[in-house]
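Propose amino acids for all 171 sites.
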């Protein structure tokens, strides 16, 4: 188990790629459960958890799985799906776990987490997540980083647009 956690940390630091991970349905399901749990904790720290938040999390996760499969299928590399999705989920869990101590510390010290330093910190971790997902996707596709980045930005923009469509406007 420790070796697997280390592998995901190394993926998040660009020292390893998805090809170094096991091709396992069980691993994908375990990582999906861990990803949902960590994301729920993150959401709970920032404004509570509503039914809409849960629906958006499920929708974006399903969209993410479908998107990654579609991109891999476009390049005729469906066989790499489990390793790719495992690498992205595992790296995202590591990135979120690296961010949570800052968020929890800010809340414990009763610091307003909407202040500019926390906003920049959150943006930094978000950009790290995009960068790592793009790197993983590029390695899975055997394409240059720019291709992976293009697909990752396409996914992020699509999921943000869907989130805007589903979220009622504040008045």
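Proposal:
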């Amino acid at each position: 188990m420790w070796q697997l956690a280390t592998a995901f940390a190394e993926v998040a630091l660009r020292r390893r790629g998805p090809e170094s991970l096991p091709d396992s349905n069980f691993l994908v399901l375990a990582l999906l459960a861990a990803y949902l749990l960590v994301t729920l904790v993150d959401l709970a720290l920032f404004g509570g958890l509503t039914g809409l938040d849960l629906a958006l999390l499920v929708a974006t996760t399903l969209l993410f799985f479908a998107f990654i499969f579609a991109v891999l299928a476009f390049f005729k590399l469906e066989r790499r799906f489990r390793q790719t999705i495992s690498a992205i989920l595992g790296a995202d869990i590591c990135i979120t776990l690296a961010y949570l101590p800052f968020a929890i510390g800010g809340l414990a010290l009763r610091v307003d987490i909407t202040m500019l330093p926390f906003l920049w910190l959150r943006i930094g971790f978000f950009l790290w997540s995009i960068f790592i997902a793009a790197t993983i996707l590029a390695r899975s596709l055997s394409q240059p980083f720019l291709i992976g980045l293009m697909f990752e930005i396409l996914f992020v923009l699509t999921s943000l647009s869907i989130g805007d469509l589903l979220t009622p406007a504040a008045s």
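The chain has a mean pLDDT of 87. The longest helix spans residues 81-108.
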